[in-house]
Design a protein that fits this description.
about 450 residues, alpha/beta, Rossmann fold, 2 domains, 17 helices
Length: about 450
């Protein structure tokens, strides 16, 4: 299945000043598959090493960081010579071997002609440990679960995927296009973007088989809690993880530590929460007091919402039947807003590669997301259906007079210069739409 990050990988390959590359991303989002496929297509050879499957590989890095010796030993392990420029060296699950991470510094300084790409399911955890990390000696890319446009393309809808990726707000979406994309978006809410889940859906269109794969992924995450997190944090991680859908379903979906388990407080859970965030499993969206730059200076780190990294995993953990989404059942009304917000957040992060904030004014108004696009601070109001009344956005605009605001819903309508109306299934186009309208 085609991933848009391939273009960034190609730019890295062709960069004469490249450094060893680390791809970060949640477990099972497709890092290994992407690197192997990229190596097959753009290199003569792929030298693949998995530190989790073969712990003996770590011994190659034990004695010293002599790059020539390391390459010789790795080639001996493979039974063939690792060549500069034409071999892609893949270090998978590199977080298992801290000295392999450290060695990247010496590959960067002493053997830049060798192309090394690394992946790790819990690399975010490893990078925060007090090890000798090669600061400034590696390049980074983030791989997320498949975006909506990638999902559309995987379903064989190449024309629609191109339409999404090329949309800039210049034209009104036709009813035919809107209808097809709306149906695909409902399917995406059910499956999410984990590649194995998407492939199962594409091949079978059987939601029961999809949920078997989703449950297997959830089980693997919870196994990571037990295997890799501090023992004292395991019950806390599990409790926080399972509380996310419940807290998002509340009218005020601000995350409250006391709702995780009675008697637990922030100081008891903060370390476990950071572990989930570092692992890429959860996104923390902080409240912003005022929409000014730099935005981080006005954020309140103790007031936040917590979302999941994949909308399909959120649906599965919520035990929400696919038919309820497909038929827009009345019993889905309460949770529909949370699902839609989680989807929009993931699309914003994938397209902008950074997490937004949210804004509220007491109990009178709340804008779902606030992002920075170039020199503009842009408020975004999210509606799950065709309701386009945006009272909170109106209050925000009255108070701060932003140059650009965004409403996103299932409704197709004309877009003004100050308030852009972007359909939910095209929200990934927000940067180019804003840029186009600002001309």
């Amino acid at each position: 299945m085609k991933r848009t990050l391939t273009e960034a990988l190609l730019s890295w390959k062709n960069n004469s000043e490249k450094k060893p590359l680390i791809i970060k991303g949640v477990r099972q989002c497709g890092k290994t598959y992407l690197l192997k496929e990229f190596g097959k297509e753009y290199y003569d050879d792929v030298a693949y090493f998995n530190f989790e499957e073969n712990e003996a590989l770590g011994k190659v890095f034990e004695n010293d960081f002599d790059v020539k010796r390391i390459l010789f030993d790795l080639g001996l392990y493979l039974g063939r010579t690792i060549k500069p420029h034409t071999t892609l060296i893949i270090f998978d699950e590199i977080q298992v071997c801290s000295r392999a991470i450290t060695s990247l510094k010496y590959f960067c300084e002493n053997a830049p002609e060798y192309h090394i790409a690394c992946a790790g399911s819990l690399i975010g955890i490893a990078l925060n440990k007090p090890t000798s990390f090669p600061v400034g000696k590696v390049d980074f890319l983030n791989l997320y679960p498949m975006s909506f446009s990638e999902f559309v393309r995987a379903n064989g809808e190449e024309v629609l995927a191109d339409y999404i990726e090329g949309y800039n707000g210049d034209t009104i979406v036709s009813e035919l296009v809107g209808s097809k994309l709306s149906m695909l978006l409902k399917q995406y809410y059910a499956t999410g973007g984990m590649p194995e889940v998407v492939l199962t859906w594409v091949n079978t269109h059987d939601i029961e088989k999809v949920e078997i794969v989703q449950q297997r992924i959830i089980d693997s995450y919870e196994l990571d809690f037990a295997k890799h997190a501090p023992i004292k944090d395991f019950p806390k991680l599990t409790a926080i993880w399972h509380s996310i859908p419940e807290q998002l379903a509340r009218d005020n979906n601000k995350f409250i530590f006391g709702h995780v388990k009675k008697g637990w407080r922030a100081k008891d859970l903060e370390d476990a929460l950071e572990w989930l965030i570092d692992a890429g499993l959860a996104y923390k969206v902080c409240r912003i007091e005022k929409p000014f730059m730099p935005m981080s200076s006005y954020a309140e780190p103790t007031v936040f919402k917590l979302y999941m990294a994949d909308v399909g995993i959120l649906r599965k953990l919520s035990k929400l039947p696919y038919e309820v989404i497909l038929e827009s059942s009345p019993t889905y009304v309460e949770f529909k807003g949370a699902m839609t917000e989680n989807y929009v957040l993931c699309e914003l992060i994938k397209s902008a590669d950074k997490e937004p904030y949210y804004w509220n004014s007491g109990n009178s108004a709340e804008v779902d997301f606030v992002i920075q696009c170039g020199k503009e601070i842009v408020p975004i109001e999210v509606k799950s259906e065709k309701n386009v009344k945006a009272r909170s956005l109106a209050e925000y605009r009255k108070k701060y007079q932003p140059a650009v605001s965004v409403k996103t819903s299932m409704r197709i309508e004309t877009t003004g210069k100050e308030v852009l109306n972007i359909p939910l299934y095209l929200i990934s186009s927000i940067k180019q739409t804003i840029s186009n309208k600002s001309k």
